[in-house]
Amino acid sequence: MTRVTVYTLAIALTLAGSANRNSVFRIATLQAEEANYLVGCGSADITGPAAGFPMEGFVRKDRLTKGIHLRQRARAFIIAERDDTPSAGKRVVFVCAELSMIHSDVYREAMARLKQRFDGLYSEENVIISATHTHSGTGGYHRYGADGPLGAGFFFEQLDGIVTGIESAVVEAHNQLRPGRILIAQGDVADAGANRSAVAYRNNPKEERSLYPHDTDTEMTLLKFVGGDSAEQALGTVNWFAVHPTSMTYNNFLISGDSKGYASIKFERLMGVTHRKPNEFVAAFAQSNCGDVTGNLNLNNTGPGKDDFESTGIIGQRQLDVALQLYEDASEELSGPIDVRHTNVDFSELAVANEFTGSGPQLTAAACYGYSFAAGSTEDGGGHPLFHEGMKNRNAAIDLLSYQMFPDSQPDKHIRQLQFPKAILFAPGAAKSASGLAQVMPLSICRIGQLILVVGPAEYTTMSGRRIRRSVQEAFGDAAKYVVIAGYSNGYGGYVSTREEYEMQQYEGGHTLFGPWTLAGYQQEFVRLAHAMVEGAPVDPGPALDGGPIPVKRRTIGFGTDQAPEDAKFGDLFVAPKSKYTRGQRVEVAFWTGHPRNSFHTGGNYLSVERRLADNWETAYTDADWETRCQWQPSLNSDQPCQINIIWDIPADEEPGEYRIVHHGSYRLEAEAESQSFDKATASFRVE
């Protein structure tokens, strides 16, 4: 029988620069014969220590948090067949986490907890945990390299906070499962990314480049989740679009989800989300193959705005505008089976067939970083001044320095041959005592009706992603109408450039860890999974993920105790607001408080902007909102009294009225004592 869906969708929506928190999507009526799937959405906070804590993304030890601009969240989506039974392959979980990477510690711990909580219903066979790759999140949650020259240390409390948030998001999505449907739409996002490695991209064959109108993938693929068989409810949305979240550059020290975090929170606020109620709408802006795509459109670590904040807002708004339009326009339903094939692949010396190399049988190589890795991407700010992109020739002084810093991670002649023409800086995959880097990578192919998700643990460049999609599309034939790369998922294995891009040894090639045939290896293994799915055959699970938790020094987040201010109490105002502001102005206040590392926890808020409604105060903004910022001073220690400086940029269309700012703080006066929490408010002020 032909399934017919008849609906009327009324949407109050303003696109582009006029989208604001007061806009609301309203589904008036929606009737259908039957929902295709069971669907559920959930989210939870995973924000790390807000001050004095290592940040991750730019490999700079001097980059420690000073405050919060946007909180970090994990957003989960579960899709199951209507006649689902507790068996792998009948349902899939996709988690979008506002992290730089999904390190193996996160993946391993999250899998252990989910399998225990749900008695094996959710496992490696059907769970995808994907990072947005923000470069303004907190680090310190992985063991590999934690104690090395480039490491930031390992803090179990930080790992636990992240995994607890991921687990909580999945639990909420599971508990919300209900009959529903998924609509899909695609559209182009203009001027939201530029190829930062054009010299490498142009080394790809001209005839291949001519197949594509741009040197980046501009297409966004969006899923819209609605629940119910009759009067349907808006549940959530997730999209995939390829752009590096580096608009907040290494000059930023505030926690932020960058452009994708901006778009997510703005979409959710449009839907009335507060993050304080159960079963709220969830909007995730997930990552794809953005390996060589930057949002810094001036290609000099700046642009398109006058500073990091404006640039982030512009790139985020361009993604948001398209997502809102696709959400409104989405009409094609996903229908058909849910299926997953998963395997682990050892890339340290993988045999790759001629079908994928075009140059006879080849091998990948033990993981190595090249000189050009240390150079960083020039267009996103660059790296160490001793290095530059394109370095291929060995330098005796650099090699000596490398040996002194990484004596256990030096390549032999065989590895150098396999990695040619990379000038190897150090080789963690060749570490003598214990592997310095995960080399067994988890790979998956996930099918949801006519959508295929290619799930990989790496930063795929534009052309690498295109080749993978083409190979997978050919394997599925007509069964795959949509093929999407879900990069940065279930692990982290560096970059994947094409062989031709690798030859140029730009930053992306220097960070392609497993040598020139890395991409061919991924293509081979993804095609193997695709063929198994088409044939209904099982796959070899492959080797176990590398070795379990490796021994590292465990550090604690807390500094110890807080220092009470002289002639004041915790929570007292240090800077008070004025009595009156006009819309568009900035409100700045400061409170005496404790250092956030001494009372670390995920969830909650450090600030709220409240509006008076009759005799009550209603929360209008928190530290999760774009319009607020909070910063601790001093941020690096608690040896002296600490202040929190709070900013609220009043929107030009803010509702006039009476407001106040509340600080939700805590302090610890004795190392072994419980921290003491408090809520302190400013006097009220008028906004006109």
Can you describe what's shown?
It contains 14 helices and 39 strands. With 688 residues, the protein is of the alpha+beta class. It has 2 domains: 35-344 and 439-535, no CATH class; 573-687, Immunoglobulin-like (Sandwich), CATH 2.60.40. The strands form 11 sheets. Strands 3, 6, 7, 8, 11, 13, 14, 16 and 18 form a 9-stranded mixed sheet that branches. Strand 37 (657-667) and strand 38 form a beta hairpin.
**Shape field:** globular
Amount of beta strand: 25-35%
| Radius of gyration, CA atoms, in whole angstroms | 25 Å
Counted up, domains total 2
Percent range for helical residues? 10-25%
Distance between the termini: 59 Å
Task: Tell me briefly what this model is.
Helix content is 21%, strand content 29%. The chain is α+β, with helices and mostly antiparallel strands and 688 residues long. The strands form 11 sheets. Strands 3, 6, 7, 8, 11, 13, 14, 16 and 18 form a 9-stranded mixed β-sheet that branches. A 6-stranded mixed β-sheet has the order 15-5-35-36-32-30, with no helix packed on it.
Features:
688 residues; alpha+beta; Immunoglobulin-like; 2 domains; nine-stranded mixed beta sheet; six-stranded mixed beta sheet; 39 strands; disordered N terminus
Question: Helices, strands, pairings?
Answer:
Blueprint: E1 5-11, E2 25-32, E3 37-45, E4 55-56, E5 67-68, E6 73-81, E7 91-97, H1 104-117, E8 127-131, E9 137-138, E10 154-155, H2 156-175, E11 178-188, E12 194-195, H3 198-201, H4 206-209, E13 219-227, E14 233-240, E15 254-255, H5 258-270, E16 282-286, E17 293-294, H6 308-329, E18 332-333, E19 338-346, E20 351-352, H7 354-357, E21 362-363, E22 369-370, H8 371-375, H9 396-405, H10 413-419, E23 424-426, E24 440-448, E25 451-455, E26 459-460, H11 462-476, E27 482-486, E28 495-496, H12 499-504, H13 507-510, H14 518-535, E29 554-555, E30 573-575, E31 580-581, E32 586-593, E33 607-613, E34 616-622, E35 628-633, E36 642-649, E37 657-667, E38 676-681, E39 685-687
Parallel strand pairs: 5-15, 7-8, 10-29, 14-16, 25-27, 26-28, 31-39
Antiparallel strand pairs: 1-2, 3-6, 3-11, 4-9, 5-35, 6-7, 11-13, 11-18, 12-17, 13-14, 19-24, 20-21, 22-23, 24-25, 30-32, 32-36, 33-34, 33-37, 35-36, 37-38, 37-39
